[in-house]
Design a protein that fits this description.
- The structure holds two protein chains of two kinds.
- Chain A is mainly beta.
- In chain A, a hairpin with a 2-residue loop joins β7 and β8.
- By secondary structure, chain B is mostly beta strands.
- In chain B, 0% of the residues lie in helices and 59% in strands.
- Chain B contains no helices and eleven strands.
- In chain B, the strands form two sheets. In chain B, strands 2, 4, 5, 9, 10 and 11 form a six-stranded mixed beta sheet that branches.
- The radius of gyration of chain B is 13 Å and the shape is globular.
- Chain B starts with a strand and ends with a strand.
- The chains are: A mainly beta, B mainly beta.
- At the A-B interface, β5, β9 and β10 of A face β4, β5 and β9 of B.
Chain lengths: 115, 112
């Protein structure tokens, strides 16, 4: 099946620094990718929709200046957590799909810890 | 606003038993529904996708059904194995966009 690769799987950073997370669709082109956040023992919360060649669409309550999304190509979307703080510590997951009649595939997730 | 609920939140069954996981949603106007599993600390693995026009889908020991009118889906797992232990999530997609709304998940433990 289709594969979505997310990197890094785990990152620890100091408060105030920025962290970039990459999401790649390895064997298909994705005009749209999605970024989710998951708190411990909770379900996934959609943060934003990443659109190739245009600005991302953010969900209500998500700070676009803190969570910068760039969808530079049909196979790569990046999420940059800027000026990270401990409250940004979470599990971030991306997803992509060929089209809406096919299943959504998810990356392995990135565990971000801000100290 | 769509709300998706999964009951029970946790389930433990002996190995070899058949089991059913439940997913209910409040808005029946869905484009499709998808079942996933999530292992601890990992991403999601797609299990089954059911289009709104379909009633069920099968893959190996898994069978998912969809009843849009009642806002329900079930995931049936036959002859459960310890490797089936994971959290199972259902997600619904509306007609208007591709945003998935996830359920609260069921944490399944298969006891050897």
């Amino acid at each position: 099946g289709a594969v979505v690769s997310q990197h890094p799987s785990r990152v620890i950073c100091k408060s105030g620094t920025s962290v970039k997370i990459e999401c790649r669709s390895l064997d298909f082109q994705a005009t749209t990718m999605f970024w989710y956040r998951q708190f411990p023992k909770q379900s996934l919360m959609l943060m934003a929709t990443s659109n190739e060649g245009s600005k991302a669409t953010y969900e209500q309550g998500v700070e676009k200046d803190k969570f910068l999304i760039n969808h530079a190509s049909l196979t790569l979307s990046t999420l940059t957590v800027t000026s990270a703080h401990p409250e940004d510590s979470s599990f971030y997951i991306c997803s992509a799909r060929l089209d809406r009649d096919t299943e959504a595939f998810f990356g392995q997730g990135t565990r971000l810890t801000v100290v | 606003k769509q709300e998706v609920t999964q009951i029970p939140a946790a389930l433990s069954v002996p190995e070899g038993e058949n089991l059913v996981l439940n997913c209910s949603f409040t808005d029946s106007a869905i484009y499709n529904l998808q079942w996933f599993r999530q292992d601890p600390g990992k991403g999601l693995t797609s299990l089954l996708l059911i289009q709104s026009s379909q009633r069920e889908q099968t893959s190996g020991r898994l069978n998912a059904s969809l009843d849009k009118s009642s806002g329900r889906s079930t995931l049936y797992i036959a002859a459960s194995q310890p490797g089936d232990s994971a959290t199972y999530l259902c997600a619904v997609e509306p007609f208007g966009n591709e945003k998935l709304t996830f359920g609260t998940g069921t944490r399944l433990t298969i006891i050897p």
